[in-house]
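User: Run a structure prediction on this.
Assistant: Running it now.
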Amino acid sequence: MIRLIGGVAAVAMIASSAWAFQDDGTIKIGSIETQTGAAASYGVQARNGSRIAADEINAAGGVKVGGKNVKLSISPEPDGYDDGDNTVQTLALFKKAIFDDKVIAVKGITRSISVETLFNYLKEIDKQGAGTVLISPESSTPGLGGITPWGFRNAFFEANQIDRELGLIKSKFGFKTAAVFVVRDNPYNTSIFDSTLTPLLKKHDIKVLTVVDGFEKTPSDFSREVSQLREANADFIMVSASVQAGVNLMKEAGRRGFKPNLWLGTVGQLSPDVPRLGGKAVERMVIGAAFSPASPSVMRLSDEYKKRFGTEIGQYALTAYDAIYLIKAAIESTTIANTPDKLQQDRGKLRDAMAKVSITGAAGGKVSFEPNGDALSEGVMLTIKDGKFVEWDGKAFP
């Protein structure tokens, strides 16, 4: 059983001064997640996964530092900061975490555009000797790895999985044409379309019959978009969208009786909110993921997640859970002092240790970082059945 931090203890941790490190037996990990706004579906998962990991670690004795067991604290307790899906706010909170809260590392950052901003900021303050490890369990936009040696990402990078999916559906079903729906006011979705979907469709000689633009922040009933996709008469439809826009598109298609052979989703649709909000309308979707819901380790976490938070676990809860354990393993593999006067030296030691760390992740596979700071993993193909993500059996939909 994972032991929860009691309300009195949580208040005491918040009240303790930022410099009290070893005196109060705590090592502080900053957390910044989008808990309100359009990307909250992902950030809340990551927040919850982090909480489970931290509570689990503390229940088992904490983190070993200098021969002592110290408590791991998500700062600020209990939920970290909410950046409200605003990159300016993200940067302000990041500065607060590293300069005022004096955390040894920061975990989080839901939007890739914010991760890119912070990676470039870390590149600048590194010149002033003020670098701090930032690990993002959610950002998977291509091309951000390697901006700074302080930046790490253990998100699921979906390009290899989409490559496998396109190869399968062409060889098995003979699909040769696609229509694509892209949310244009979300930089991640546009980036994935340009840098991943377009070249992979070309690689597999799949002709794109139409590209339909959509928007997540502009009210729409998606009737125009569905009509355009239907008129294309493509073999399948690719969806590069955030949760709400993708769900609304597929629900409108269902209302209009439009059932494509297959919806091929991208990582933006990997949220428990998709089957919850979409119902039967999303059950023709195939999507690459980092984990199988049937994995014993995932099932254990899934049970705990549902018991504590009342909803199904999602991919970002698992990667955030792993991020906390990666930090723990890195700390325990090096010799930090965990004292105020050694904070920046400790941050440097943690950065070097993170580059070499390896753990068995929540999904059961090895998690370690490439030289550019990105962690790669082989994924699985999921679909939605009876309101849940399940492994796709590779068969055509009825």
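The domain at 7-156+295-364 is CATH 3.40.50.2300 (Rossmann fold).
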